[in-house]
Amino acid sequence: MPPSAAQPVSTAAPLAQPRPESERAAMLAEAAAGREPTYFVPMPDGMRRLPVVHVPADLPVYRFDNGRLIAELHEHVHAAGGDFDALRRKAQSGETQALLHRLLMAHAGDERGPILQELRRLRQQTEPLLVTAGGEVINGNRRLAAMRSLLAEDAGHFDCYAQVAVAVLPGDCPPADIDFIEAALQMAPETKLGYGWVNRRLKLRRQVEELKLPRDWVMAAYQIDDPAQVDRELGELALAEQFLRDRLHQPDHFAAIADAEALFVALHAQLQDLAPALRAVWQSIGFAMIQARDALIKEIGGSYPFEPAVPRHLPSLALRRFAQEKLHAETETEDEGAAPSGGLLDDLRAFFDGCGPDDTDALRDLTEVMHTIREEQREAEKPAVMLQRVRRARAQMDRLTPERLTAGQRNALRSEVAAIQAQAAYLLGEAPEHRFEQRKTTMVRAVSGYLRRWRETSAGG
């Protein structure tokens, strides 16, 4: 029987005003009284069994602090205006619950975890929701949203969802334990739809910094083996939030960086490995590149500051070269490993802060400078590579004997040895030097838009 037209049902309609918490708690306590605990949930001190009861589908309420929705709720505040904390205070209002339902339904239909399709096909709830003693859903928010929507779509066909099975946590379960349980259940990668990189880190930060959960609890819940990973992920989140705040001037617009996890992870790693004096300007450069990433796909791939610096002195040398060659600024030293002066670093930071998403010429020129430096490094390494190959050839010759060579091979070896001797004499300064002089040429560089802006910035400073 195909689903009929949507027919909202009072006990399951997504927009219905939630029951008061006291009424929900009383109904759950009455239903759970005398029930034998049978459902296992992970707690900080180990697995615990909870009673499972059946309640009307309109009794549970969606969890506002659902780790899967944090970034999207911030995005809602960004688009609609208002205050995130004010929205949280109205978490159990009909309006906010309706908002949570819409967001959860988008996840319920996700192809990577097609809960809506499965519930439509099975017409059976296969796993209980996990709720607090007051009826807030800790695990199973998407399933509840899908069951409610199917019931509202066709009350007769999907009457199996008029009552939902819930496992009830004890009334004295503290908020820290509730967050631990949610993370532990949602981080099971083989069965759950991923949180998304921003949501994961927002949830992680709340647990570590607001709820003060012990680090070992958090690591167990998120299946983290390396203690340093927690700090890395929090640092990546802080960097992303700084980008939204300082670069885009849209603090809650997390949708703008949904596709940029790899870039923020890589930029954070390289900034941590950078001398403090250079960190600010390279962060500005990284932010400018991330903002212009659609236009700089080719340049960003394999480029610093999203890949390790090669050679090691590239971050300081590239800035000086760029200032000299592209901005015609004077620098005070030719030492490749020395950082530019503080004044020049401040100027460069201000310059790259002023590069808009369509102003990519300067960023492309900087990547060209870095490419040239890497090529110079490869050229400088060639003598060492040559010597290594000569040693390898000599070792191979040590394993040969004269009788193993044919007449043709002897002649070829004689020619190669004579050529190597001649080249070696030249390199050792034991033969006349023959060198072709290459004329130096100069090019008249056009004064580009970004060079004019540099001059204006310098004049204004």
Key attributes of the depicted protein:
461 residues; mainly alpha; four-stranded mixed beta sheet; two-stranded antiparallel ribbon; 6% strand; elongated; disordered N terminus
What is the fold's blueprint, element by element?
Blueprint: H1 21-32, E1 39-43, E2 46-50, E3 52-56, H2 70-80, H3 84-89, H4 94-108, H5 115-122, E4 129-131, E5 137-139, H6 141-153, E6 163-168, H7 175-186, H8 197-210, H9 215-221, H10 227-247, H11 261-272, H12 276-291, H13 297-300, H14 314-325, H15 342-353, H16 361-398, H17 407-427, H18 449-460
Parallel strand pairs: 4-6
Antiparallel strand pairs: 1-2, 3-6, 4-5
Helix pairs in contact: 4-6, 5-6, 7-9, 8-10, 10-11, 11-12, 12-15, 14-16
If you had to describe this structure to a student in words, what would you say it looks like?
With 461 residues, the chain is mainly alpha-helical. It has a domain at 21-196. It is built from 18 helices and 6 strands. The strands form 2 sheets. Strands 3-6-4-5 form a 4-stranded mixed sheet. Strands 1-2 form a two-stranded antiparallel sheet. A hairpin with a 5-residue loop joins β4 and β5 (137-139). α10 packs across α11 (261-272) and α14 (314-325) crosses α16 (361-398). It is elongated and about 100 Å long. The N and C termini lie far apart (75 Å). The model is unreliable at 1-13, 188-193 and 434-447 (pLDDT under 50).
